Amino acid sequence: MLLLADNPLSEQIAKRLAGTGASALVAVADPYDALEAMGRREFPVVVLSPTAATPSGAGEFAALCRATRRLQKNAKLYALCPPRLEMEVCELVGEALDDYFITPPSPADLRTLAEPACPVGRSESPVVSAVEPPAAIAAEPRRAGVSKVEPLSCEEFAQLASATFSRMDLEAAVAAMVAAKVKGPLEWMDESLLGENYMPLLRLPAGPAGPKADTHRLLAATEPATLDAPAKALLAALERILPALYQAAKRTEVLHHLAITDELTGAYNRRYFYHATDKVLREAAAKNLRATLLLYDIDDFKTYNDRYSYAVGDEILRETADLMRRITREHDIVARIGGDEFAVLFWDRQPPRLPDSKPPDSALVLARRFLKALHRHAFHSLGPKATGVLTISGGLASFPADGTTCRELLRKADQALKAVKRTGKKGIRIVGPLTEDAEDSRPG
Amino acid sequence: MNGRTMPSPRRVVFFAPCAAPGGEGLGLGSGSGSGSGIKDLGPALECVRVASAYEAAAELLAGPVEALVIELRLLRSCHLRLIEIARRAGVKVWGVGAVPPWVADGRLSGVQTTSRAELVRTLEALAGQGPAEAKDGPPKAPLAMSGVETPVSEPLLTAEELSALLGDAEQA
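YS: structure for the whole thing
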């Protein structure tokens, strides 16, 4: 075996290899000494340390590996690298290297280094190993220049690429892929939350290149796990490709957000409201959930635009949308569906505890709360005393009594809204004849 | 099979950056040397281009090489050993371009600095000598760098082709 390494590392390896059965170790510290030694004879195994390549750098080391391949076509070519250089060295596996090991090498690594090379066309090897190579590695025949482990198949890559719809989807896909190899429970977490018993497997950078700007993201095994060669290769490959996939996922998230939101108010847009509402209604039908749609607009909104300005009108729309978002629950859907017209789908995630509960109760409570908040809110853009001047009119339609699709509910809610307008505006009315509820919902 | 050993082309190793834009027309980029670009210039001369000093050294150590052409600006002090290897192997070393400022007098001993035009003429002369004898070892006779008559009617390498081999067409 030929070993190119800095002196302390070289001595350490030589000492540790002494007990493995490896013999005829030629250790050199200068890359040109190594090349000259390779020019004189063939070695079954060549181990190179990138720190010995001068000047130390990924490009120089890759060149040294290619030079080694040129001279030692049949040798197994390994790199012995410190963890900080793993990413660069890992990229050379396959074309320029057979494999790499992290310093200090484990006993299993040393056994692999000491195993006979059995190169094609040669009958004798100066290295004789008394130790069986690890089964996982010995099971796979190697060819010079071809990695023993395919770290990531095309199918697996396609699976990850198709999960770049969001960072969450991507993390789930990665966790599933790694879990299949590690065979244990895994969890993604911010580095600061890493528990003592957790075993970090993947560490992704913070900042623009990573999934989060402010913290490293970790995939960790929640129980002690053993990593075999394929698992290590997969993790190394993932560490290389995930930053780019995260970038793709982040871009998709941004584009998705732009596609579903109203730019002016930050509420959802009409297209998304239809899509999301119909989806919720299908779930509501299946699980007997309650859902109520509120359609409202700002009374005499045109006069604000005319009297003040469009900028003031825009400000009113923004503040009104903010108020509505504040009083609704996180899962309710608030959307601007055109001009000064907004729609809200209130829905309960759990079915009613009592079968005969009145469906619109919670929606009406929330709608009243919104009216009160609106009544108290000071619209500074309308002047220093602009509190309680802005009013809305709205109509409520309940699922499934008033309709089972977004379109049907909107039509019914619009009828109720028009009825409120006819009777003096400033209130919210449930579909159907004028009720006490509608009267009560008007701010006092 | 008549028992005669086929003559092998004379090999010239170019230590130069990867092909500059426009150098693709030479058909570089694939060849028998790993990571090398090889242009078959007929039966007499084989040019091997490598982008690093380590690979250049490997080419010298791998088999008989007639000459080593170095783009001098690529040479770092830590790679001067390459020249020593060439010298020991009896390989002519031709340096093209400006001598880097860090190179002290004598450190490039054995390297003949030459211009591109001169290098073309020398290579043509080399090709004119025909294939190398089928045996290992350094070239038998030292090569003249200038004043050699070109024995072929067409130039073996144009200035553009040489520039592409050296990976630096703009400096041609």
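YS: worth flagging: The longest strand of chain B covers residues 10-15.
IM: good catch. Also The helical segments of chain B are 53-62, 81-88, 116-128, 159-165.
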